[in-house]
Amino acid sequence: xxxxxGLESRGCRRKAPGRTRRTSRLTPxxxxxxxxxxxxxxxxxxxxxxxxxxxxxxxLPPLGQVxxxxxxxxxxxxxxxxxxLSNLAIAHSWMLGTLVLAGFQAGxxxxxCAYFVFGTxxxxxxxxxxxxxxxxERNEGKRTPASVWGSGFAAAVxxxxxxxxxxxxxxxxxxxxxxxxxxxxxxxxxVASEIGKACGRTTILITSLxxxxxxxxxxxxxxxxxxxxxxxxxxxxxxxxxxxxxxxxACVCVIAAFLATGLESWIGATLQQESSILTNDVVNGLxxxxxxxxxxxxxxxxx
Length: 303
Prior knowledge:
Blueprint: H1 2-9, H2 28-50, H3 63-76, H4 78-84, H5 87-123, H6 127-133, H7 145-164, H8 169-199, E1 203-205, E2 219-221, H9 222-241, H10 247-269, H11 271-274, H12 280-302
Helix pairs in contact: 3-5, 4-5, 5-7, 5-8, 7-8, 7-12, 8-9, 8-10, 8-12, 9-10, 10-12
Main location: membrane
Membrane topology: Multi-pass membrane protein
Keywords: Membrane, Transmembrane, Transmembrane helix
């Protein structure tokens, strides 16, 4: 009894009679199965870690589902689409929508729809003033196929690359930033231009800072610039809420949009005046590509 008490005091407990370790009762087959699980489980965890989630761009959703969803949206939204696009432009927009839905899933698709809605509505602001001054968009503001790709070229390229690099989350994060930045840039430019033509009190040429009539290529106004900046910020915030970018990415998109629209104004005031090749749609394509590249390069440098 004294010896048992001494062992208890030193923290050594006597095993209960008849109790043995559980592993000693394992059959050879069960022991082999356990060893196999220990070997296979880490490999399965590694595969699961590499597998893209359903929210990851480039996750390659079923093509049939993409086509059905996009076609349904265009079918039910056709009356609204006609207000801002020509019939041929609607067909081209369908192709753009298919690429974006496949590459960036529902979140990216909603952003494209939001851009179209906001961009169409803002062209109607101050329509009477624009018509009187001759600055209202041609064809009642309806966009042509060239306008569709001038606005969505960079977004389409980002979507195609997202599909090409499916599963590489590091690349996909950059492509999402580039995608959002391209649309934020175009929306900022559209809002700045339309608000400037309707409400701009003083419009100056970006190169000389001299007053010019509203609607002049390369001209900017305080009202339009602020409206464009707010539009890009709101759009970037929406993209964050939809999970396309993180807060840092949203801020980068706003900065890239501001710089790219400034570049567009400079091109409009200089090179576009001397070249017949640089149409508004071509300049728009250069602008959104610049916004996308600036955003991706900045995000890469910061992360």
